Structures are given as structure tokens and as C-alpha cells.
């Protein structure tokens, strides 16, 4: 099948025989004309891939009119929903510092042991509109607003530690490529289309982030089980003035867990609000999601490198084997929003919302975000006074001398709206010597004004290779299958070929698997039009021979906690309600939730019935249990019961049965000898403990591997 073609519209030539632009007596009514990239004013542009910086490693310059025009226009493309991260869910909570960060930063909310800080955290997908589904394959946002005594601090994080691009000037291009095609406005909330993979295959710096969200990290099981990353390197300063370069992590107490692809697709149809419902329900039931805040602390060296890794490159991570994550505090989300619009929709994050002890670096992606986030709120929230909205209002005293503007709600008094003044008694004061003042650290800046990257930004494949090598075999199969699905949705063979060439530079076996899945040969040769500098061996990120890192795989040997997990129990009128009570008590001790599925609503004795086969679906359960007394019931004969069991088996979930519940498994061909399928003649403590352990491992990984090897796994 070939891509749909528009009627031929040959643009007029943009060059006269003399080489100058042709003269025009009146503007051409067509919005886009000519072959040369220009500004909105028609000025030809020499480079749209790099911000103007003071030297290759210097800060981005405010005079970069092209950067500002490009990002300003992008920020204001849509109103009122966010251009990106439109689909979100949020919760209130509290952050408690361990106190061991005082050697790293003087930020009070981190440095003081036992210091509690109110927070508001918003999770979100990136690509889809507000009405899209939660469980699409995507990178996700994980942003937290700390209402500290020193001012508001925003940690604007993602659930993947690296980003698609190295320079913010490319962000509009990235999002234009991944958003629905502009002619038909489809596909919604998906990267499985030509424009995204055309961009990704030709800008090979994207390959690291791309392989992360092609893995299970792109379809998390819940917001409660995502890891968070600050992505950029920040500079932290302690009370003695010593500085360090730091990467920020959120480690989920419940562990990192994902969906399998079929499960994610079922959720999109059965419950497109799956993640936001899961988060709200867990908090409502008292199973509060928790994360530990961790820091990777590295020397603030002159070259801003760490063991061969350029810390200003947002497409690179630092393996935890080289720099362990130091846990410095705990986040607990314990209250749902009262009003979605007033809180979740109107919350405004900005990486420039800093506190003393935390400062930015010259990372060119971060530098552009410092402009973009503030700029976009002005349109989205109707003017410059968005900080006065209750959800954005700081908990620290404010005397900013800002006045008027749209949606001004403060009533300002006095005449001293400037400094210095005498009419207001010289207040407010601004002095770098005052305690608690944010003072920008003096750092030398020098260099020619250039649009280019440092040489160390040039390696685009070593760390994606490290990621691939760090996955377990079943996770590799999952990831390869994701590439097959995504590229299989592309119409243009040239797009598939370019991406396969990029995969070949990551790993030959990965490329071969994806090509085989697509039914095409592995392309010969190398792509000749990848982005400049897409080489290898420059700031490679495999210092000290680290070619794999244990922090990447979610397959673990030891089970984690099962707080907030949901266990579906098939039971009916012939089942023993006392056994159900025993199981419910055991799961409640683990802070897991039991939901009874019966042939009718109401109760089984005193046990409430929450689901029937018609309203239940496998996606909402982390494990499925069949009680005794089912074999002759209408519940066992219901076709939806069979589909739930078969899906749970295919998805590697724990399946437990006792008594004649085992007969139901046998009747539907569920292999009771398979990993994660536990049976007994009666409900015993060993059976209950086995269920808790199996859920704590998240999936029966060997079962998934066996299904994949047999060709029966529905990736």
C-alpha cells in the first residue's frame, strides 16, 4: 500500500536567474511557498537544528531570534489545552526529607531531616489530546510542584531518563512529527506513523529515547509503578558553596512494572481512563503511592563530563553502576484533587521555578525549556498572572512588584512599584547578602556565536545498545515486536529502511528481528542523510566497560510489595464466604484489594460482589483467583469468564484456584503446571503466600517466554 498523495502543487521557484529571491508586487495567498526555510518574516535561515550559543558548550543566547520565534509560535499553536502533556492525572501529597542531602544542597526542603513539604504531582502522556486514552505507547510526564518555605520548586520530570533531542530548537519539529498527520488529524496519541519515524530515523539522536518507549517503559502498568527522571543535569550548591552536578530520580516503592502490548490495547477499548482511575482508586482506598527521591551526584568539573559521558547531553544517562543513586527523601501521594479543572488542568510547571541550592546548567534542551514553559502558560492560562491561581500559588511570602495584566486577582497597595524607592520605605529589598536569597552561581562564559553541538554529542548509538543489552530475553522480544508494530504502520518503505539502518547500528540481531517481522530484507549499507554528527565513539557513555546496567530491566528475582494491586476472585453462590473472608483479610494485610466476580451483583453472604462477567475485564486485575464451588455455577460457563482466564494466562498474570475451581481451569485448557499457576484442594496459607509472591514478581516471565517461543504470545 502506498501513502495517499495530494494533487500536484508545484511551488514557484524561490530563486531568480541572478540567485536573488524573485520580486513580488503583492503577497502570495498561499501560506507556504518556495524551497528555502525562512523565518515568518521571510528571512532565510542557515540552520534550524542548533540554538545560538556562546561556544559549543556555552549557554543559549537571548538574541537567537530564530529560536524564540520558532518556539514562541509552537507554544501558542493550540488553546486552551496543553500542546503536549494534555492528557493527565494528578494528586496531592507530602514529601519528607531524610536530611542526608545537606552535603549536596542547601535547599531547605531537601537538606533538613524530617522536613515535610506539601506537593502536587501530575502524570501525563505526551502526544495525545485531552480525550485520548491513558495506556497508549508514549513517554510520560511526572512533574511535581514542591510548595517549599523558600518558594515553589518544580521538578519537571519524565518516566524515561533521556530525551529525543539534544537542542530545544528541534522540539517543535519533534512534536509536529509525532502528532497526528495534519491532513486527516490521525492517528491520535500514536507514534506508529510515517512522519514520526521519518523524523526519528533521520535524527538519530532520538534512538535512545525511542528504544526506551518501545520497551515496556512506554506502556506502564500504572502511574504508581513508573520511575521518574529529571532528564537534565542540574547544579546543586551546599551551604559552604561547594557545587556538584546532579541527576534526579524518582524510585517507585512498588517497583517498575509495565503492561504487555495486548493488555494495553484491551485497556484502551475497555477503559481509556485506566491510569487515572487506578491512581484515584488507590489513593481513595488508602494504598498511597510512594516514591523515593534519589540523586546521582558527580563532581562539578570544568568540562562537565563524567567518565566519558557528557552531562550536558540530554540523550545520555549515567549508569547507576558508575554513580549510585543516593536516596534523600520520600514522596507520598495521599489526596485526590477536589476539582480536575481547577487543579490538574490549571497547574503550571516550569523548570525555571527554582530554590536556593538548585540551579540549571547549559544543557541546550534545558535552556530552551526555561523560555518555553513560561511562555506557553501565558497563552494557556490567559495571561501572566497564572501564579495567582490557587493550585499554582506559592506557600512562601510574595512581594514581586508585578502589576496588572489579564486575570489580576491581587489588590496591590502603595506607590512603590519600582526599586530603588523612598515612597515605600525602600521596600522590598533585593540583596545577594540576605539569607535564603537565590544567587546565580558565577560561571565563566566564552566562545564564538555558533549554531553547533559539542563533538561529544555525536554518539547516538552506544547507549541505546547498552539499553538493549540490559533487557532480559523476554523484554527484548517485547521491544522488537513493538518496533515491528510501529514500522508496520508506516506506508513508506524508505522510512522503514532508514529506521532499520539505525537499528542495525544499535544491534544487528535487533535489526534482523524487526526486518523479519516486517517481512523485508535487512537494508544494505548506511543511511547517507542522517542528522550531522550521528557517529559513534565520541562521549560514548560506556566508560569503564559498562555495556549493560541492572537498573533498566524490570524483571527481578525478588518479589516487591503488592500495595494497591487488585486481585479478581471468581466466586458464586456455591462458594464458601468464610474462605473469601480469609483471603480478603490476607490480601488486606498486604494493602492489596480483592474484588469478587459473581454471576450477579449484590452479595455472597456478607461478601460484596463488585463485578459480574459482563462488567469485568482481565486488564483491571493483577491476578485472577477461582474459589471452590464454581464448577456447576453459571459463572463458570459464561464465555467472558473464559476470555478473562485466557487473557490473564497470556499476559503472564498469577492464576490461583482451589477445590473445584481447578476443574474450571482444566475445562478451559489453562496449563496448571505453568509458572505462576497455583492450585490446591483447599485454600491454604501456602496458596495465599504463593499468590502474594507471584503478584509481587508482577508477571510469570518464564511463561511469557515460553508463549513467545511457541509463537502464541499476542504482543
Can you offer a commentary on this structure?
The chain is built from 19 helices and 21 strands. It has 715 residues and is α+β, with helices and mostly antiparallel strands. Among the domains are: 230 residues, Catalase core domain (Catalase HpII,  Chain A, domain 1), CATH 2.40.180; 89 residues, Catalase, four-helical domain (Hemocyanin, N-terminal domain), CATH 1.20.1370; 144 residues, Class I glutamine amidotransferase (GATase) domain (Rossmann fold, 3-Layer(aba) Sandwich). α4 packs across α12, α5 packs parallel to α10 and α12 runs antiparallel to α13. The N terminus is likely disordered.
Topology:
Elements: E1 53-54, H1 65-75, E2 88-97, H2 108-111, E3 116-125, E4 140-148, E5 151-158, H3 171-178, H4 194-202, H5 207-214, E6 228-229, E7 234-237, E8 243-252, H6 261-270, H7 274-284, E9 290-299, E10 305-306, E11 309-310, E12 326-335, H8 340-345, E13 358-359, H9 364-380, E14 449-450, H10 462-470, H11 473-488, H12 493-506, H13 508-518, E15 566-570, H14 577-589, E16 593-597, E17 602-604, E18 607-609, E19 623-626, H15 634-637, H16 639-650, E20 654-658, H17 661-667, E21 677-680, H18 685-696, H19 701-709
Parallel strand pairs: 15-16, 15-19, 19-20, 20-21
Antiparallel strand pairs: 1-14, 2-3, 2-12, 3-4, 4-5, 6-8, 7-8, 7-13, 8-9, 9-12, 10-11, 17-18
Helix pairs in contact: 1-9, 3-4, 4-12, 5-10, 11-13, 12-13
